[in-house]
Design a protein that fits this description.
Layout: H1 2-51, H2 65-114, H3 120-149, E1 159-162, H4 163-178, E2 182-186, E3 191-194, H5 196-212, E4 220-225, E5 228-232, H6 265-275, E6 279-284, E7 290-295
Parallel strand pairs: 2-4
Antiparallel strand pairs: 1-3, 4-5, 5-7, 6-7
Helix pairs in contact: 1-2, 2-3, 4-5, 5-6
EC number: 2.7.13.3
Transmembrane segments: 12-31
Enzyme class: transferase
Length: 299
């Protein structure tokens, strides 16, 4: 009997030893399978930190939690790459957005310096334009910073805005700057509650956009009806695939990339209109050209 019990103890001991060894080997294999993709992710993270190259491929295999970690890491890399590309584009192209007011300032200042015989009324008008362009430049600079940091805030107080008068003022300044024919039509009922500086920037960007994409010598037509502003140009129009995206920040169609600009002009329009609970729109005119504008809620 004692021999039987002794044999059972030995067998149980051996079974325990083999079970422990088996569990250790199995755990080692499982840990290796889990650790291998984690080591790959760690290697990729180290390489990105060293090279600053966000295009490095992230290994994603399988369907487990580690694979989910890989997919999340890959999504983060793509988001960072997109953000970096947008920031680089802003740095390289913001000068184009600033060019319009700077050019107008230089033109008016040079005219005042070179022509002593300018009539007093015209001189006062040019000085007024200089002051307005400086204000526009300051506003645009602040908005560029706001859009770049996604921290758009406004200290401006809401008030009654005569949208027709505002649009006519924008058109007059654009005529002086571009030499284009710019017509403004009145649909009536144009006083709304809003932020005048934001709406001035929005209308200015719509007009500048129309001038930018219109052939030389062509006219621009603006209609103001209640809280709606529509700017019509006679350019090539907008490709159908680009229509849903033209108000996105930094978006530039393939056809527009040869033109100056950062892709922020219409994004600033959309941002201002959104703050007024309005809607932006863009469409191609039946007989050519584009119609771009916004609709604001009326009081």
């Amino acid at each position: 009997m004692e021999d039987v019990l002794s044999g059972m103890r030995i067998r149980l001991l051996l079974a325990g030893i083999f079970a422990t060894l088996g569990a250790w080997v199995l755990g080692w294999l499982i840990a290796g399978r889990i650790a291998k993709p984690i080591r790959k992710l760690s290697a990729v993270a180290s390489e990105v930190a060293t090279s600053r190259d966000l295009s490095i491929a992230v290994p994603v295999n399988g369907t487990g939690e580690v694979s989910e970690l890989g997919r999340s890491f890959s999504s983060m890399m793509n988001a960072l790459s997109t953000s970096l590309e947008q920031q680089q584009r802003l740095v390289s192209d913001a000068s184009h957005e600033l060019r319009t007011p700077l050019t107008a300032l230089r033109t008016n200042i040079e005219s005042l310096e070179l022509f002593d015989a300018i009539p007093e009324a015209e001189r006062r008008e040019m000085i007024r334009d200089i002051r307005l362009e400086v204000e526009e430049l300051s506003t645009l600079t602040a908005e560029l910073v706001d859009l770049a940091t996604d921290q758009v805030q406004s200290a401006e107080q809401i008030g009654t805005v005569d949208l027709l008068a505002l649009t006519r003022d924008v058109a007059q300044r654009a005529r002086r700057r571009s030499g284009r024919t710019i017509d403004v039509s009145d649909g009536g009922g144009n006083s709304i509650d809003g932020f005048s500086n934001q709406l001035l920037r929005a209308v200015s960007n719509l007009v500048d956009n129309a001038i930018k994409y219109s052939p030389a010598g062509s006219s621009i037509e603006i209609s103001v009806d209640g809280g709606s502003v529509r700017v019509r140009d006679h350019g090539p129009g907008i490709a159908e695939k680009d229509l849903p995206h033209i108000f996105e920040r930094f978006y530039r169609s393939i056809d527009a990339r040869s033109a100056p600009g950062s892709g922020l002009g219409l994004a600033i329009v959309a941002d201002a209109v959104m703050r007024h609970q309005g809607k932006v729109f863009a469409a191609n005119a039946p007989d050519g050209g584009a119609i771009v504008g916004f609709d604001l809620p009326e009081p």
